[in-house]
Design goal:
four-stranded mixed beta sheet; 510 residues; 18 strands; single chain
Length: 510
């Protein structure tokens, strides 16, 4: 689901970026017409990627800029933005009353691009590897296949996030799973098939429309072309010169994109940038056990200033960890920790930690939230809290980030409309963003209700958790930042239906 750990995009020297633009340009209209990017044809959709694809293996596919995977692969069901499910390979389904099982009824005559059929056995083969590679979500799953079009997946425990579990897995054929070229030659049942001969890995990826796809009308373009442009600056240049139809843009390039003729910019509020104070037992940082310290850390920040100045007005100040449309969001909370440095200092003195402590914040290259670091360092210094940073790199960077060695990470995470998802990753003991993994009896009680209760009981429990963590200052939320997608008049995007609020997904392009 939502990319809570976006990796840094690779940057190249300006001359190299310019050369890439030239080699990627075909001299044709990006929409297939003769009038540049403003053409009205539906022959070709060309999208810019500001980071290269990591290969075609869906098990390693990110959710961010994942149009190629969405094109090549299909899923059992699709997740709507509101958390409900829509048909995909399955036309109908039932969720067990105990929330442990999902029974899917598959379409007939559906095939992979290698000609093999999509069957109940296919679903089993696609989900089975996850029992080991994603055991926290799929461990212990079992399958019942009464016929080739019916499959029941059963978990050992109730799944309050059943929709996410079933819509996140790409279906692949047994032949593909056994192939040594699975990372270079996708074999899926999606709306497009990969044209390897027309593609150049690391530069241009070309996919052709599958006319037999059951939902082909939602994908009007005959050809999808993805061009790797290596940086947001290069991607915006390609957009302005008509080489591509759409691309993500950053806050730094937002104003330039907005001023460009025939270019539209969609802004999507995405995630929450917050200090997550997970060491509430004070095992690594004793001061964090004291509620007065956690409240003081909240009160030392001017969130309005952060949103207006550091984010150039392209973010909303917030005091809460959860999405405004989620069941856990406390609508009448107001500003529980208003900006007041003097009062924050009083709280630190009352706590006995007025001499402060050292807080190490992990960082990675390319994270947008690092614009906050000078201000965060300055304001926490008011409370004698010294901020040090540790840059994480290499293949073990994510593991180290979530290891618990840094018990109060500052990051942009979650805040999706389904509060259960954010509770599962950031609040309960097992949540990977609750990096210290410390137990809490109150949260455990409400989580059991979410897992086992009715819809109304679950929503009430989510609200109770939202109020509990707000009252106990588990987080120092600062802003809900915006992300941006720029596109030319050659395409139409009525809305973004991405459940992850990252950018428009492929079926949003009309």
């Amino acid at each position: 689901m939502r990319r809570t750990l976006p990796l840094a995009t690779k940057t190249v020297a300006p001359l190299a970026a310019a050369a890439l633009l030239l080699t990627a340009c075909t001299g044709q209209s990006s929409s297939g017409g003769d009038a540049g990017a403003g053409g009205t044809g539906k022959d070709k959709l060309v999208l810019g990627l500001t980071a290269d694809m990591s290969g075609w293996d869906p098990s390693t596919a990110p959710d961010y800029q994942a149009w190629g995977y969405e094109a090549a692969y299909d899923t059992l069901v699709k997740c709507n933005k509101n958390g409900s499910l829509a048909p995909a390979a399955a036309t109908s389904w039932e969720i067990g009353a105990d929330k442990k099982s999902f029974t899917a009824h598959l379409r007939s005559d559906m095939k992979f691009s290698d000609g093999t059929p999509v069957t109940a056995q296919t679903v089993k083969e696609s989900f089975t590897p996850l029992a080991k590679t994603a055991s926290d979500r799929y461990g212990g799953i079992k399958f019942d296949i009464p016929d080739s079009r019916t499959v029941t997946i059963t978990w050992p425990d109730p799944q309050p996030l059943m929709s996410v579990r079933t819509c996140s897995v790409e279906l692949v054929s047994a032949k593909y799973l056994a192939s040594k070229s699975r990372n270079t030659a996708p074999v899926g049942s999606g709306p497009y098939t990969y044209d390897a001969k027309a593609s150049t890995a690391g530069s241009v990826y070309v996919l052709r429309k599958n006319p037999d796809f059951y939902d082909a009308k939602k994908y009007p373009y005959k050809t999808l072309e993805l061009r790797v442009l290596s940086s947001a600056t290069a991607a915006l240049s390609a957009l302005k010169t008509g080489q591509i139809d759409g691309t993500v843009v950053t806050a730094d390039t937002y104003n330039e994109a907005k001023k460009t003729p025939n270019v539209n910019v969609m802004a999507i509020e995405s995630g929450v940038t917050a200090l997550m104070l997970t060491d509430r037992e004070g095992k690594k940082i004793p001061a964090l056990k004291d509620l007065r310290v956690r409240k003081a850390m909240n009160m030392v920040f001017d969130r309005d200033l952060v949103a207006k100045k550091l984010y150039k007005g392209l973010a909303s100040p917030t005091f809460q960890f959860f999405n405004k449309n989620g069941a856990a969001y406390v609508k009448d909370a107001g500003a529980p920790y208003p900006y007041n440095v003097a009062e924050a200092k009083k709280l630190m003195k009352q706590s006995g930690f007025e001499k402060g402590f050292t807080l190490t914040l992990p960082t990675m290259e390319g994270q947008a939230w690092t614009v906050l670091l000078p201000y965060v360092t300055q304001q926490l210094a008011e409370l004698n809290i010294k901020v040090e940073t540790k840059t994480l790199t290499g293949p073990d960077a994510i593991t180290e980030l979530l290891s618990g060695d840094y018990p109060a990470p500052l990051w942009t995470v979650g805040a999706v409309a389904n509060s259960v998802q954010d509770i599962s990753i950031g609040v309960i003991q097992a949540g990977y963003w609750n990096v210290s993994h410390q137990p809490d009896a109150t949260v455990e009680k409400y989580w059991k209700t979410i897992v086992n209760g009715s819809t109304s009981e679950s929503e009430a429990a989510q609200q109770a958790i939202g109020k509990y963590v707000l009252d106990n200052a588990w987080y120092v939320p600062l802003v809900n930042p915006q992300v941006f997608y720029a596109y030319t008049d050659s395409v139409r995007i009525p809305e973004s239906t991405d459940p992850n609020d990252a950018h428009p997904i492929l079926r949003d392009f009309k």
